[in-house]
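EI: anyone free to look at a 132-residue chain?
SC: sure, send it
EI:
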Amino acid sequence: MTRLIFSAIFCLAINCCLGQTQAEMNKAAAADYQKADKELNSVYQQILKEYKADTAFIKNLKNSQRIWLQFRDAELKTKYPDRNPTFYGTAHPVCRSLYLAELTKERTEKLKVWVTGIEQENICAGSVKTKK
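SC: here you go
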């Protein structure tokens, strides 16, 4: 049953790739992950620039990002533990890239709050700037 559900989700996730070879699907999924990673790095760099005067925040942000990278890698290993290379099948590279893209997009959304800011009335703003 689990494999059936996984197969259905996989088919939905790559419906844009129908008619492509496995290599093309691998390439498309990898490109999606690279695009997500590029956006994450852009948001991260923007935060570093906008908050450069807040050295305590920057120190903690860098630490948080380093830990998040370790978390991302651990999540990937949890979802796809090291096994025999044929265990996950030919779709494995696509699945790995899709999962990495998902995790990366989630992190980007979390970080964007420091770029967009929050409402001034929020008493729990912490280090996040308020909207103008």
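EI: Residues 22-50 form the longest helix (29 residues).
SC: 👍
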